Amino acid sequence: MSDKLTRIAIVSSDKCKPKKCRQECKKSCPVVRMGKLCIEVSPNSKIAFISEELCIGCGICPKKCPFGAIMIINLPTNLEKEVTHRYSANSFKLHRLPVPRPGQVLGLVGTNGIGKSTALKILAGKLKPNLGKFEDPPDWQDILKYFRGSELQNYFTKILEDNLKAIIKPQYVDHIPKAVKGTVTDLIDAKLERDNKKDMISALDLQDVLNRQVVDLSGGELQRFAIAVVCIQKADIYVIVVEHDLSVLDYLSDFICVLYGMPSVYGVVTMPFSVREGINIFLDGDFQLTVKSGGFTDSEIIVMLGENGTGKTTFIKLLAGGIKADGEEQVPELNVSYKPQKISPKFPGSVRSLFLKKIKNMFMHQQFQTDVVKPMQIENIIDQEVASLSGGELQRVAIVLALGQPADIYLIDEPSAYLDSEQRVVAAKVIKR
User: Fold this and answer.
1) Radius of gyration of the chain (CA)
2) What is the average per-residue pLDDT within 407-432?
């Protein structure tokens, strides 16, 4: 097969349901009608299999599939020779890898589902790259031979010889309280490997939360705590940063690798680009919440800005009726729709079931579908279990839920958390509508 005809077939394991359809994909495939096994599926199959070698890219099967489970994508020229990892047949494929350099900060930028986490796992030695050969994974000698002549050859040699220690700060810091218990100072002492505890506590402004339980930390405080735990451990001098706030990434990074492609289908890592010096963002301050009198009018959007731990979430909870004011002044009763900062997926069902239960009337309304549901790309996850959603997917669902409830005031706490750069712009436009 020539490089120009390289294509990738994706079959969603969540959407493909051979037991509930008539195998329309197989029946409509012109290659199958010619007697070739381009699509293999039966009522007893767990998922359909599409041969990318036999596929001619006619585009019929994606249109015929009643569940929208199939995508056929033509890949850019020559990418087939640069496959780094693929999880299984008809699944996500990562091309190339970021190239970390000692003593420098490598920034990764790309949309959600484009392969940043996969690349990090490979570079951390937690995932062995299979070079696209998922049925017969290569051994390390073949992998080193593949990367021969590049900086990654020396990097993977160090991993193979256990001469490289990688530490990853978790992406979803709100999961940390579920995994560890204790005070901030106890957990920092338990991980301490370097003589920089005081410097990290001072630099990350953790003095006021040292004796606080981790479960009681706010989102920003959890983020600073997680960074501190990583920085007090001994690791090699390669630093890789994944950040959707481009101004912060510009400030942090010495050079940047961009990941492009199609989310959940394929991702491609570019060669490193240089980054000019960005804006210095410095966070400090003590916690004290003082609310002065004020007001707002209909159809007005008010943005609340402030440092982490200064009471933004507390103030929103106060307006939402979640907590009561300490003084004599009472918050007027309002019909409120509230999207919390921390989202805990407890609903035992699909996203569709959640919407039909919570906001059925609005969800069935055509205008709401056009203005909110479609721009937030909910149709891609509508039949997935709520408990299995990623942080960015949960955030989109939570925003739709909040906007779907009739209210006098909509309180949306950190709507951009876990969303990538493009999704943040879309979310802002949806909220403004």
Assistant:
1) 25
2) 79
How high does pLDDT run on average in the chain? 80
CA distance 410 to 320: 9
Of 162, 157, 166, the C-alpha closest to 234 is 166
- Calpha distance 410→336 (Å, rounded): 6
Residue 408: closest CA among 339, 316, 342, 320: 320
Question: Rounded to an integer, what distance in angstroms lies between the CA atom of residue 132 and that of residue 266?
Answer: 12
Instruction: Write down the H helix ranges in 114-179.
Output: 116-123, 140-146, 151-160, 176-179
DSSP string, 253-293: -SEEEEEEEETTTEEEEPPPEE-------------------
- What digits encode the pLDDT tens for the residues 93-107? 999 998 888 878 888
pTM over 0.70: no
Distances, alpha carbon 390 to alpha carbons 194, 218, 395, 417, in Å: 33, 20, 9, 12
Between helices 391-403 and 351-358, what is the axis angle to 10°?
Answer: 20
Q: For 293-347, write each residue's pLDDT tens digit.
A: 566 666 677 777 766 656 677 777 777 776 776 666 666 677 777 777 777 777 8
Bridge pairing between strands 93-95 and 266-269: parallel
Please report which residue ranges of 169-260 form alpha helices under DSSP H: 176-179, 184-191, 197-203, 219-231, 246-252
